[in-house]
Write a structure and sequence with these properties.
Layout: H1 5-28, H2 31-50, H3 63-81, H4 88-106, E1 121-122, E2 125-126, H5 127-147, H6 165-185
Antiparallel strand pairs: 1-2
Helix pairs in contact: 1-2, 1-6, 2-4, 2-6, 3-4, 5-6
Length: about 190
């Protein structure tokens, strides 16, 4: 991604913070929710690494193929988990997006940009990038509307802060916004 310094650092901070929150949520949850939190932590830290400004870190040539392999394995895991439903399809799309961005960044002569791609394009944007941009835009809009409180309730004390559903949704929304930003700069 390696965009301008300030926006890169803001993306790094956002993604690392969501990764840390997901680790904390992982400690407080069990079962499927724990697995989802672990996957989201890996995604958050992976996105934080990918967003580091180029002036700070230019990864060696071998890093991006390893990165693509790690998220390729996560995509295969997500493909198998999709049968169980739930949030697994989103994890699959996220893993595919990470593989795609790592491959695009590793392509010789592209320096992370679309110049030189031979993929099918629509209006100059590769079809896969356009599809991912549409998916994440819809996800962000849907998640954002779910965060709007409908009515205040005067119930008893809620769950521990690490497992509050609105924080989990805000974490996922933050990572989706970061993914949108990274796809736009690709």
């Amino acid at each position: 991604m390696h965009g301008p310094g300030l926006s890169g650092w803001l993306l790094v901070a956002l993604c690392a913070a969501t990764g840390v929150y997901c680790l904390l949520r992982m400690r407080a949850c069990a079962g499927e929710e724990r697995k989802a939190a672990g996957g989201e932590a890996v995604m958050g830290f992976g996105m934080a690494f990918m967003a580091l400004p180029a002036a700070v870190l230019t990864p060696p040539e071998w890093v991006l193929p390893v990165y693509a392999a790690v998220f390729g394995a996560a995509a295969l895991h997500g493909l198998l988990a999709v049968r169980r439903g739930g949030h697994h399809l989103h994890h699959l799309v996220g893993s595919v997006a990470m593989v795609y961005m790592a491959v695009a960044m590793a392509a010789p002569g592209t320096a992370g940009a679309h110049t030189g791609h031979t993929a099918a394009t629509v209006g100059g944007i590769p079809v896969l990038t356009g599809g991912l941009l549409l998916y994440y835009t819809a996800y962000v809009l849907r998640s954002g509307t779910r965060l709007v409180p409908l009515a205040a309730t005067a119930a008893g004390p809620g769950p521990a802060w690490a497992t509050r559903p609105e924080l989990t949704l805000a974490c996922r929304l933050s990572m989706a916004l970061a993914m949108l930003a990274m796809l736009v700069t690709l």
